[in-house]
Amino acid sequence: NVTTTVDGYAVKYVDGVYKLVANMVVNTNTNETYTSFAEAIAAATAGNTIQFLADLTEDVTINKDLTIDGNDKNYTGNISVKGSAVDVIVKNVNFINGTGYAITTNTIKSITVENCTINDYGYGFLYANKSTPTVVVKNVEVNNANYGMHWVYGSNATLENVTMTNVVYGLCIQNYAAKNILIKNSNITNTYIWERDGYSAVQTFKFEGANTVDALSSSQCAKHVLTDEDATIKAPEGSNNVVSGDANYVVAYEGGVYKLIPGSIWNKTQNKKYGTLQAAIDAEVSGDEIVLLSD
Strands 25-27 and 48-52: what pairing? Predict the structure, then answer.
């Protein structure tokens, strides 16, 4: 029967002593407050939202469908997500000064991260290990980390408005199975394929909007696709695996940018289009028929 009237605190019995401990998180569905992140997760039911009330330092595991709303507070630790049918959303969290990964997943359904910053994390932002079929990352900044996103097993990922600065491996994708990664209006350190022995699955990076990639992977297991005429990649010249996703356009490199231009020259024999007559001539085989499609 020891209680308190002090707002924002709860009575806890620690080492033989009753004491006041600050409430750190709230379940916005039940309005129940908790003095630890883990305590709130344990008490929550699927579909609930847990919101930070203060800066937190704590490692936790989530094994149910939850939304974590950081409320723009700082967080130091690891959020580990597990459970084959689990969908988790993490938003509005400022991850700072961590030693491992900010978020790890292990055999889940999906992870969505939005409106977060990650600063000075030893290993990095996101380690999608085991089966993580769907990854969505929007409006996220990653600064000073070893890995941006490290993805092992899965199917589809979307990165939109993602910025990476001083990140060694921007998008590190292991090639155990084919994956599709949509990148839109983002600034990525690099695309990197971790080629595992005995595996050769192609990882397809699809680009929409204006993007910057400091280094495009030259791996035979990487393919970079410009999806339409508005898609661009600012990157060093020389990549041989940037292709067009539109049969009416071809890839051109101008002013430090990969972009699509209309395929005005058609090698009818090879059924390939080129942006310039010279490019078509350089690629032709004796006897090929070249057709001008426009002036």
Answer: antiparallel
Least confident range of 74-83, 147-156, 276-285: 276-285
Q: Kindly tell me the burial class for residue 172, based on how many C-beta atoms sit within 10 Å of its own C-beta (0-12, 13-18, 19 or more).
A: buried
Reduce the DSSP state of residue 2 to 3 states and report it: coil
Average pLDDT, whole number, for the chain? 91
pLDDT at 11: 58
> In this structure, are residues 14 and 23 in contact, taking their beta carbons and an 8 Å threshold?
no
Residue 163 in contact with residue 153, Cβ under 8 Å? Answer: no
| Helix/strand/coil percent split, the chain, to 5 | 5, 60, 35
Q: Which amino acid is at 228?
A: D
Token digits of residue 179: 């994956």
Closest by alpha carbon to 47, among 32, 33, 61, 68? Answer: 68
Q: What does the alpha-carbon distance between residue 57 and residue 183 come to, in Å, rounded to a whole number?
A: 31
β 156-174/134-153 pair status: parallel
